[in-house]
Amino acid sequence: MRNKFMALVTVCMLLLVCAAGASAETLTIGLKGEPTSLDPHFHNVNANNEQAIYVFDKLIRQDSRQNLMPGLAVSWIPVSDNVWEFELRKGVTFHDGSPFTAEDVKFTIERIPTVPNSPSSFTGMVSAIKKIEIVDPHTIRFHTEGPAPLLPRNMATFNVVSKKYGKGASTADFNSGKAAIGTGPYKLVEWKRGDHITYKRNDNYWGVKQPWETIIAKPITNDGTRVAALKSGDVDIINFVPPADVAHLSKDSKLTLSKSPSTRLIYLHLDSDRNDTPMVTDNNGKKIKNPMKDVRVRKAISKAINRKAIAARIMDGLAVPAAQMLPEGYEGTSKTLKPEAYDPKGAKALLAEAGYPDGFKITIHGPNDRYVNDGDIAQAVAQMLTKVGIKTEVNTMPKSVYFGKASALEFSLMLVGWATDTGEHSNCLGALLHTYDKDKGFGSANRGRYSNPKVDKLLEQALVTVDPARHNALLVEAVETGMNDIGIVPIHYQVNVWAMKKGLDYNGRTDGYTLPREVSETK
Amino acid sequence: MSEHTTEAVVQAPAVQDESLILEAVKEFFENRVAAVGLVIFIIMIGVALFAPYITPQNPYDLMSIDIMDGKLAPGSKSFDGSVTYWLGTDSQGRDMFSSILYGLRISLGVGVVSTIIALVIGAVIGLWAAFVGGKTDSVIMRIVDLQLSFPAILVALILLAILGKGVDKIILALILVQWAYYARAIRSNVIVERSKEYVEAAKCLALPQRRIMFSHVLPNCTPELIVISTVKVASAIALEATLSFLGLGMPITEPSLGLLISNGFKYLQSGYYWISFYPGVALLILIVSINLVGDRLRDVLNPRLKR
């Protein structure tokens, strides 16, 4: 009897093992960042935007190199100087079966500026639209005040929500899943904050059938733990492989790596606006007038940074020294700007010229769980600034604390990153260098409150210039003006690395997203 | 035992004369392992105190470190050839040997200072509670119970999240999590002592309560206090290391042992083992040596274990 029972148990266990083996249709993803919310319009930040693409769709998609592709809109044409017409995809339904129509698009665009407490919103993406005209359920027209050549680019940044569920829904309703009803390839099952987000395949998806039955996205902030989770088989794929681990992971026969250059810029924002900035004192600890209002001081900070050393030693070669806000080849990039050469003598001379021969004291703030090696980069910058006389202390904190404080202007010098979602320069110019203007949606991430009327004017002009060559020339001029005035101090562009178990394939994306719809099984 | 206490009554405050202390010292060294532990502990205090004179680099001075020397293997020469890093460097180019000695300074300093202050506070409160008794005693002891019912690490984490970073803040947090332990231990000791004849004798002499408390009872509790606090120094050091491993406590440019281990943790699988390994070894040796000394002290000072 006992033997029979044992045999039965063994058979059951074998069956279970087989069943587990057969359900290779679950993809478990280890992510460096957890979204702050599942409301796609709450916080314009990489981790949130990434998760939003699982559940929702955009009117216009970006391929893995950020070229525009049809999404919920099949075509878009300017019918006159001030009017864009978008033809919407027919036969698309939301997860609950209700049809997707132009009403949902209108609702989405109207909702974006109204989301309360948004730390950084998509308002700038829709601020050009003055009137929305629904021609028929699958044709919609956007009337703009002036010509808006960038409208399609902007439409490729935010996701469309359902009017039925989104109306009156708060950010909390999206987090709980009540309002997170989209048209995307996966349905939200549950979000256990800090542990996992589970998705189920949407079988009525309008696009190609998805290879994964279930997606489990696990936030694993610690780099070492994330790598260990992959090696032990807890997760199938991880993003942001720490540079130091690339060498030994690529030797592991059970794993595959993929690398992709990215538009993720790591840079310093400096308070160049206030006379009284919180984190600066003279060498004796007495308050002084903000030295970073002087372009010579900003230039000295830029010259003091050894970008090649950071790329080689801190990033193990997985970074490209930056001169502007997007790598060359993207729209609006300048061909004359070169990464500032490391020149500590020049930096000291500039500081002396600006009236700080003995430097001053400052604290650099940075996140420690947001960008690849962020804490180490902040320390390296502090080291380099200290060597030219700017005695720098370092204070790093979790991103959940950091960004709130940075947006509340509690810092003077901060390490930040920006990934240009639209893949062209007006996006980062508008967000980082344009004078802060909440109503127009400019300067949404301008935490140094840099302001240069010439940059503002050139950018605003470019935004209404339809002729591509002229548009590009204006952007280039704006970028050169802002960068030569050291509106920000660019450091490098991240090279992103994914690691996955053998048998999976992911090409990587320049925007850094890990999208299950692009993860395939190699047979 | 009884002989011991009667002697104490006759000679009032002097509980132990010199020959007793000498005997205890002798007995301590009878155990070789404990002797080795004590020697190592003294050496560690020595190198920590004199760290600035022994180390080739001040790892907390951003002027003297360079990322070009980052992640060098043990025994490598620096970029400019001036220093040899015998234990390697971390990702910022800090010499591990120097960092470990400076880290020991913080660990020992924080451990010893916080333990002494917590001991004093705890002793006074415990003594007072035991002597006054009644409501005061109940209230104090319920507070102590409440505090002891939370894990120390949890209380310290919350305190540091509120207080921010810096050595003074860690010490404050460690005092706040430790005092209750001493208060409890001393109170129970005092209650036992209070019922002994020498206290009654002192009372009959109409000595003031304060004098009985501090001059008669407290000295008779010192052996226990010494044992508890030695062991507690080790646990305070471990707690500090845990907190800084979790990123609380010391600023990242002034890493203590825990933070050094945490910095190296993410490189453990990349082959840069030395960033975590050597600080870990240093921490281990420190804590083991203190525990060896503490254990032996318990044996020597505990009259019940006397032959």
UniProtKB/TrEMBL annotation, chain A:
Family matches, as InterPro entries: Peptide/Ni-bd, SBP_5, SBP_5_dom
CDD domains, alphabetized: PBP2_NikA_DppA_OppA_like_2
Signal peptide positions on this chain: 1-24
Keyword Kinase: no
One of the GO BP terms on file: peptide transport
Pfam families for this protein: SBP_bac_5
Record bears the keyword Signal: yes
Chain segments annotated as coiled-coil in the UniProt record: none
Domain of life: Bacteria
Residues annotated as domain Solute-binding protein family: 68-438
Keywords noted in UniProt: Signal, Transport
A GO term for molecular function: peptide transmembrane transporter activity
Family recorded in the similarity comment: Belongs to the bacterial solute-binding protein 5 family.
Record protein name field: ABC transporter substrate-binding protein
Organism the protein comes from: Halodesulfovibrio spirochaetisodalis
TrEMBL record, chain B:
GO biological process, one term: transmembrane transport
Major location category of this protein: membrane
Keyword Transmembrane helix: yes
A single GO cellular-component term on record: plasma membrane
Pfam families, per the entry: BPD_transp_1, OppC_N
Topological category with respect to the lipid bilayer: Multi-pass membrane protein
InterPro entries: BP-dependent_transpt_permease, MetI-like, MetI-like_sf, OppC_N
Ranges annotated as spanning the membrane: 33-54, 106-131, 143-164, 272-294
Compartments reported by the entry: Cell membrane
ABC transmembrane type-1 domain residues: 104-294
Keywords: Cell membrane, Membrane, Transmembrane, Transmembrane helix, Transport
Claim: Cell membrane is one of the keywords in the record: yes
Family: Belongs to the binding-protein-dependent transport system permease family.
PANTHER family attached to this UniProt entry: ABC TRANSPORTER PERMEASE PROTEIN, OLIGOPEPTIDE TRANSPORT SYSTEM PERMEASE PROTEIN APPC
Protein name, UniProt field: Peptide ABC transporter permease
Organism: Halodesulfovibrio spirochaetisodalis
